What we know:
By secondary structure, the protein is mainly α. The chain has helices at residues 8-11, 110-123, 130-138, 147-155, 166-184, 188-202, 233-252, 266-285, 295-307, 312-316, 318-331, 334-338, 346-362, 364-373, 379-387, 396-408, 413-427, 429-434, 437-445, 452-464. The longest helix is centred in the middle third of the chain and has 20 residues, at 233-252.
Amino acid sequence: xxxxxxxxxxxxxxxxxxTPAPIISPPSKSRSKSPPPPSSSHEDRLGAFPSKSSSVxxxxxxxxxxxxxxxxxxxxxxxxxxxxxxxxPRTEFGDPLTISGGxxxxxxxxxxxxxxxxxxxxxxxxxxxxxxxxQLASQGIPDGAGIRSTVWKLLLAxxxxxxxxxxxxLAKKRSQYKQFKEELLMNPSEITRKLEDCTSLQNxxxxxxxxxxxSRSEIPHGEHxxxxxxxxxxxxxxxxxxxxxxxxxxxxxxxxxxHFFSGDSASAKANQDALRSILIVYAKxxxxxxxxxxxxxILAPLFYVFKNDPDEDYVVNAEAxxxxxxxxLLSGFRDNFxxxxxxxxxxxxxxxSKMSLLLKExxxxxxxxxxxxxxxxxxFYAFRWITLLLTQxxxxxxxxxxxxxxxxxxxxxxxxxxxxxxxxxxxxxxxLLAGDFTANLKLLxxxxxxxxxxxxxxxxxxxxxxTH
Length: 468
């Protein structure tokens, strides 16, 4: 077997070590090596891997790490909302605390200014060119002007390219989500009463609204709280209890170092309630998948971006908008690994194997040192990278920037995600080649701070240098 020659571009010292991001505030992330809080549920399948967010127990005991808060955008990038009243521009956002962290804080370069202008120009068109929008967004969306919220909705096909039908489409989807909540989050007692009222109306009898509580003799046997019937609403309610408890635990552990998600403030509790409702509705609508621990980490960036939209109407409906975008995002990963997490890791193993082959194709020396010499199995570190879409490896602000690129891929985020993971290995190539099993595993399970723009540039290089 002839050993592949390492491409010249990989030998450049630029790729050997990360270029530190400009420091404009305290460190953007704080990691603890302790494992996440214990859980009594058998569904804690990701608990074996250290989690940046779940390892923090109190927001007061560690530096507060806040993503950039968008600033109000220029006018006329959206049509009228579904209601007849014009939206009131927002001047305050859900997380008005002092921002610290993230390598990009607002507009920091001429390139960002130019890209923002191009994005605003594209969003102002009556018919948006999604291909052009993807190309612009793949380079990163500036944090200013509140553009990211609209762009992500377009990239996830929640908003159509024709702005003329945005209002009607949004009204329909938001009404549908409201109906989901009314039906799926209803207490079993309310469901039983509703069924009884429907029966009474059909028989021409007085409804329960004027008859008080149901007497014991009036409760159908199949709807009795002790019924074990598969169609019993009470039986289904008790079966869902374990999953709902798991969702509650995970939601409370979501980014405890970001006040938008944690703390005792009314806004933080409201945001947690929204995450909880979305995850419960998703689990009940998808019985084949239900809820898998870690879904809350994928949901969080979407809800944060949509909740901090400068348009008040979009803020009010952020929960509904987030639900449909969350469903679309997970659908792209369902066949690969999400469905498999409930029973086995076959799907994720296949995805990780693709990442390993990609590294071998571009840097066989590094691949051989990791997997053969030091025997660092990629499942030891890449499992969390891939399942949680890198939300635990970088600061929250940097994760948003990475997601700009992931969501911009016209073929879906999977292939871009694998290239970014491979680029992460290449950026610490020199340290990995010099390390043994213990050092390399520690490095990859607690990935060092890096310049995100530089990381995405290397990932794009892997695309352009792919062999055919």
